[in-house]
Amino acid sequence: MFFSDPGGVGQNGVNLLSGGGGMLLFAVPPQPHEPALFADVTLAIASLAFAVWVYLVVARGGFWRVAGFDDLGPAPGFMAWPSIAVVVPARDEAAGVADCVRSVLGQPYPGELSMVLVDDQSQDGTAQIAEQAAAAIGAAERLTVLSGRPLPQGWTGKLWAVKQGLSLVESRPVQPDYILLTDADIVYSGDVLMRLVARAQNERLAMTSIMARLRCDSFAEKYLIPAFIFFFGMLYPFAWVRRRDRATAAAAGGCILARWDALRAIGGIESIRGSLIDDCALGARLKTQGPVWLGVSQEVRSTRASDTIGDVGQMISRSAYAQLRYSPALLIGVIVIMAIVFLAPVPIALFGHGLAQAIAAAAWLVMALAFLPTLRYYGQSALWGPALPAIAFAYMIFTVNSAVQHFQGRGGMWKGRAQAQVSGSS
Predict the structure, then answer these.
(1) Is the pLDDT of residue 420 over 80?
(2) Can you give the pTM of this predicted structure?
(3) Which of 170, 301, 313, 385 meets the CB 3.0–4.6 Å disulfide criterion with 368?
């Protein structure tokens, strides 16, 4: 068919081509709308990421204000300070156990304070080093070193060691008022134990727990450790844990002060014997017996070194899949959500266009600013703030690796042992 109109593209996808002194008309498929669709999807992802970060900052219990939870306060005087039995599970802890023993038994605590250290079949002289440390400060009579028995099925190694220590405490004619569960790499300074007990007494708490200040010296630690605290607070906002009207419950396994009667009322440590995330599981159980408190302190420190990214990754992978209740569906969901919330804003902010680019940049800025208080608390450079997406990507890899280890029968691997594959309540 011939027309006298100029050649070009007509309406509704009709092409007009010159041919033999006239125009040849033929129909072609409409032009695709992929660029517009891509722009819409990009805008939606950027908007979702920004909305999530606004929620996290505004309505997630102020979890990012780390220093605000370093609030034990001074220790008032009591007519009679309650008695404390300290239980320390220790497996190949020669590097840090002496500092732990000296710092705990050397605390200026006015009440009765004793320690049971359960040597969980160590091969590095942990027991002897602990005894020498106690003797060096004149506290040998307050330390009992118990040789741990082989790990039975259904228990994690740490909880089995704790169980043996608690059984010894229970067998004594006089029972303590409180149990302090602490790791062998934790060091206490100042009068922090007095202040911890004062908080427990004043508020009639079933449990008082401190998230120890983890070591942050090596590159791997600077890269990953502050984010560990940041993500923990995001999952378990400290403010919500402390509230009696909130179901949120958690604890930090390096330092848990529990009322002895509350611990016995929940069925003892055996009630969570297979839990890889034992601290949060214990916190949840103890909250059924009364209010609990979780905070941070610069005077409770971990001396455990993580010199490589693999060292930190092992710590995270040990329990990450347990946190997801061993669910492949939850694993996929978490990876997708983290990709949207942490990763997507970066390429959109750098390479996007228009409103989507602006919103993605805002999301990236909010997450960096939210991370700053944690970095400041750990004395790290603010330049790590914009790197949070890269840090989150590493945590995503560790989480996937945790699932892989589980399916390979190596789940919960710690100190040469694969732990029980039973998820505890949290």
Answers:
(1) no
(2) 0.87
(3) 385
What tens digit of pLDDT does each residue of 195-217 get? 999 999 999 999 999 999 999 99
From 4-8, 74-78, 132-136, 298-302, the region with the lowest mean pLDDT: 4-8
Cβ neighbors of 369 (< 8 A, separation 6 or more) are 385
> How far apart (Å, rounded) are the C-alpha atoms in residues 247 and 425?
13
The answer to whether residues 8 and 117 belong to one domain is no
Rounded mean pLDDT, 325-345: 97
**Two structure tokens written together for 99:** 């500092």
**Residue closest to 116 by CA, chosen among 190, 180, 178:** 180
Place of tokens 């590095």: 124
397 and 297 together in one domain: no
Alpha-carbon distances, residue 69 vs 133, 204, 291, 373 (angstroms): 32, 19, 16, 12
Q: Which of the residue ranges 33-37, 130-134, 173-177 would you say has the lowest mean pLDDT?
A: 33-37
Distance of CA 359 to the CA centre of its chain: 29
Both 138 and 165 in one domain: the answer is: yes
Please give the tally of structural domains in the chain.
3
Fill in the amino acid letter for 292.
V
Give me the domain span that covers residue 288: 67-307
